Amino acid sequence: MSYSLKNNSYAEFLVSQGKSVLSLRGVHWMNYQGALIPTNVMPVNVRLSTDDTNRALRETGALFLRYSTASTQDESVWWNMLCRHYDFNKVSSNTRSKIRRGNKRLNIRKVSAKWVSENAYECYVSCYDRYKNALPLSMDAFRHLMLEYADNDIFDIWASFQEEKLVGYILCIREENGVFMHTIDISPEGLKNYAAYMLINHVLEEYVCKQGLPVSNGSRSIHHDTQMQDFLTKFFFEREFADINVAYRKDIALIVRLLFPFRRWLNRCHIIPFIRKVSSVLYMEELVRAQQGIEA
Fold first, then answer.
1. Mapping DSSP to helix (H, G, I), strand (E, B) and coil, where does residue 130 land?
2. Verdict on whether the full-model pTM lies above 0.85
3. Are residues 106 and 153 in the same domain?
4. pLDDT tens readout for residues 92-116
């Protein structure tokens, strides 16, 4: 397991922030809230042996490792959302109308991460009114996070304004082979004025049309349902199916087996942050079992 970071700018960024990055089977991995997941901007399928996963978990201290393999079926419970081709003139007339209305009511400009850290917290917090199972960061944590992205040219932030009031923004991570829409925050006021439509259209025209780069919105969420992925299908995003694989540390595997029958009861306590994280892991296990045809 080496630390060669060739062609993975996000992995290089993580290392520059003092975070550990593991290289395994040609893929770079990061420990994100106890989960070992790929750092790649574009989705990646990889096959790992039991020895691979045990060694990775032992060396990183992660609770579990999650990865994708090529799908063995036409449709799966797991997928990645990607837009590889975009044409404004071919989206539905209703979508084109909303993009045009957004462009008339709002304006877009590129802003820095430092600017976001100082000016976007109110907008960021307002977005959480529509999320069922998520809580916003504190102001200090939000500012600290955004400042980590400052002065690094792999991060692009496109912001939407109603006159001079921020009503939404998209933070993108850009690498040589594609772009990941890492964060999409739109205030209720922005949604009413079609900020989501005009921002998504702008991102796709900038990267897919002008630069020839595919744009990803990541994999199926196991944390909270924002309905964003259904919305993205209006813009030629497609679900590219894959098989989800999870390897647990031995003690975590035992805990998952014991708690799994109580997952629906635990979902009722999602307001508690720790329980919400546990519920996400149990939901992920439910997807794995569904994929394997095991009755949950």
1. helix
2. yes
3. yes
4. 999 999 999 999 999 999 999 999 9
Residues 102 and 202 in one domain: yes
Is position 36 within any domain? yes
pLDDT of residue 204: 98
CA-based nearest residue to 146, from 136, 155, 158? 155
- For residue range 212-249, what is the model confidence (pLDDT) as tens digits? 999 999 999 886 555 889 999 999 999 999 999 999 99
Q: Which residue has the tokens 């647990």?
A: 248
For the chain, what is the largest distance between any 2 Cα atoms, rounded to a whole number of angstroms? 57
On the 0-12 / 13-18 / 19+ scale of CB atoms within 10 A, 287 is middle
Tell whether 94 and 224 lie within a shared domain: yes
For residue 143, the model assigns a pLDDT of 98
| pLDDT for 61 | 95
Provide the residue count of the chain.
296
Query: What does the DSSP 8-state code read for residue 138?
Result: P
Q: Which helix (H) or strand (E) holds 254?
A: helix 250-259
Most confident of 6-20, 129-143, 198-212: 198-212
Q: What is the CA radius of gyration of the chain?
A: 20
The token duo for 251 is: 């003690």
Neighbour count for residue 170 (Cβ, 10 Å): 22
Contact predicate 81/232, CB 8 Å: yes
| 246 and 231 inside one domain | no
One domain, residues 224 and 266? no
Task: Dig out the tokens for 85 from the structure.
Answer: 């081709």
- Domain with residue 183: its CATH number is 3.40.630.30
Q: What domain range includes position 156?
A: 84-239
CA-CA distance, 121 to 118, in Å (whole number)?
7
User: What is the pLDDT averaged over residues 120-137?
Assistant: 86
